[in-house]
Amino acid sequence: MTVSQMRRRNVPQRYILPLQHRPTLTDRNPMQQHCFFTRPLPVIDLSSLDNPLLRSRLVGQVSLACKEFGFFQVINHGIPVSLTKDALDVAQEFFDLPNETKMRLASDNVCKPVRYGTSLNHVKDKVQYWRDFIKHYSQPISTWIDSWPSDPPTYKQKMGKYTKAINDLHKKLMGLVFESLGLKPDYLKKEVEQGSQVTAVNYYPSCPEPSLALGLPPHTDYGLLTILLQNQQGLQIMDKTGNWQSVPVIKGGLVVQLGDHMEVLSNGRYRGVVHRAVLNSEKNRISIANIQSLSMDTKVGPASELVDKRYPVMYEEASFGGFLKFISGNNIREEKYIDTLRKQKSIR
């Protein structure tokens, strides 16, 4: 049974986390507890992206955000509000469909190009997570769009325009991130242009007891960047001190998170950000996460320019496809793919 099917007066036992894994033990709103705002979260204005005189300042801001948080938000990124609104609206329309319609897309196979599901991996999860989702491959869009949901009727059109815009933004952001590492902005240009994009459309219904459950457990994404749109607050990131910080919803803003692939490529200079999804008792939440990386079978290792005496090769090469195979047989709460790739601890 998916979360959206349930009548939610209480949290069923299968969703209740052990005490040590709960987002908070005392307050009914996890977003107001155990989140210590030690530093403002970075917001980067991209309006000067194409101005060569101001680009170096942007690169510096990206460098600081990646080093300190593995995360930033962007504004004035060039994607019209109409596209983000359409994407969120059609996502809501999908989750409002009759359950039998959505279940036609249900699958336990994490490698399937289009699949509807609940929790994280409901077959293997010892505790279920308060989330329903539709995931699909989105790049190259001409290859995958015909396999996307046909209901709602406008899903392909609206989500297609949005994911294409995100993919274009990703290319620009990768140039900034590469520059911030001392690489050329067109580093791996062809590989990035031919890369993969996995779209995860997540639905987190309101939860009667949000202090007992999570929408998603603490984890890192396996990709270069994840670009996320959210309509309600619920994303939390872990900062360097081990404290959780809630990510505010900024009008017109998009969340950018570094993934494990970026940690490997940067040879440990940057880290994938640990994050989780918390719940609230009043509002449903939708997020659309586009996980961007190279093609599924392209292996990524540390950039040779970032290997030196202080930073010898610290990671094995790995592909996005290898990650999918790993998570199909492992509990990411107990074992992380990035840990299997580390050769030694990085020097900080």
TrEMBL record:
Subcellular location: Cytoplasm; Nucleus
GO cellular component terms, A-Z: cytoplasm; nucleus
Ranges for domain Fe2OG dioxygenase: 194-294
InterPro entries named among the record's database cross-references: DIOX_N, IPNS-like_FE2OG_OXY, IPNS-like_sf, Oxoglu/Fe-dep_dioxygenase_dom, Plant_2OG-oxidoreductases
GO molecular function: 2-oxoglutarate-dependent dioxygenase activity; metal ion binding
Main location (coarse class): cytoplasm
Name the record gives this protein: Fe2OG dioxygenase domain-containing protein
Keyword Ribonucleoprotein among record annotations: no
